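Fold this sequence, please.
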Amino acid sequence: METTTAVATDADAVAELHTASRRRAYATLFSAHYLDGPLLAERRQVWRRGWPIPSRRQRSRLRIAERDPAERRRR
């Protein structure tokens, strides 16, 4: 497994992971209608539009872990 700094082309994969996580975590808090609805499309829009571009003062970066780093290079 390898970790790397995420880039804008990772936005859809991050949105899919974010959606799956929200669906599990909030299953008892939000309606199934919301969680099973357009959540993925909303998350994709958020991650595509607001991809984190840290300023020089920010020290945080979004990191991703991959089982097969070669797969990312083929995308």
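The radius of gyration is 14 Å. The beta strands are 2-5, 63-66.
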